[in-house]
Amino acid sequence: MTAETSQTLDRGLRVLKLLADTDHGLTVTELSNKLGVNRTVVYRLLATLEQHALVRRDLGGRARVGLGVLRLGRQVHPLVREAALPALRSLAEDIGATAHLTLVDGSDALAVAVVEPTWTDYHVAYRAGFRHPLDKGAAGRAILAARQAGGLEEPGFTLTHGELEAGASGAAAPLVGVTGIEGSVGVVMLADAVPERVGPRVVDAAKEVADALR
Fold first, then answer.
1. Cα 77 from Cα 71, distance rounded (Å)
2. d(CA 45, CA 12)
3. Which of 85, 141, 187, 211 is the most exposed place for a label (fewest CB within 10 A)?
4. What is the largest CA-CA distance in the chain?
5. What's the half-sphere exposure (Cβ side, CA atoms, 13 Å) at 3?
6. Which residues partner with 101 through β-bridges?
7. Percentages (nearest 5) of helix, strand, coil residues in the chain
């Protein structure tokens, strides 16, 4: 900790990161142990974060990330979109199909950036803001596959056909190694099957986007 930084703010941010990394919340004692500070400090940090709706405590006293984080998260989408666009443009032009970046939004997959190819006679119309269940379509299935793998293996790609639109096929690969962001990069095309080279190309694009977001 340098003279130019705030110890209290640093601890508050560490609390949020710790809570974001758990699905079941943490007790004051657990947070105290992880932060290396006494329980009184943790109580003060939680009380301040609760005032801003960034933390909530359940009936059992376990602290969890609060809904206020979602309001902050909405402002992240434009930044993520801007970082992903170069890789998406390259992917769309290379494959000749609509490319998209999809992020998790609750139980849905939400397209936050879409790029259509400029040289094709026709392509699938796919718009930013389109959402669908995570277990439907290549974009969502790629995210679920990454969750199941838990980072224990090199991510591959997911192929689907006709799950979101009749006659359309999709390929997607998950974003890996980007803290706080869960998503995938993919393409959708009017075809009965995805050409063999598309899957590996989508994986490369997902890596490009992940690198841009780190």
1. 11
2. 6
3. 211
4. 65
5. 0
6. 113, 185
7. 45, 20, 35
Contact between 16 and 31 under an 8 Å Cβ cutoff? The reply is no
The angle, 0 to 180 degrees and rounded to 10, between the axes of the packed helices 7-20 and 39-51 is: 80
3-state secondary structure of 208: helix
**Which CB contacts under 8 angstroms, 24+ apart, belong to 117-121?**
117/92, 117/93, 118/93, 119/93, 120/96
Output DSSP code: residue 59: T
Q: Given a cut of 80, is residue 74 above it in pLDDT?
A: no
Distance CA 187, CA 2 (A): 46
Are the CB atoms for 167 and 190 separated by under 8 Å?
yes
* Total number of residues shown for the chain: 214
pLDDT for the residue numbered 39: 96
* Tens of pLDDT, residues 51-68: 999 999 988 899 999 878
Q: ∠ CA(151), CA(86), CA(206), 5° rounding?
A: 15
- What's the CA gap between 112 and 19, in Å, rounded? 25
> What is the pTM for the complete model shown?
0.70
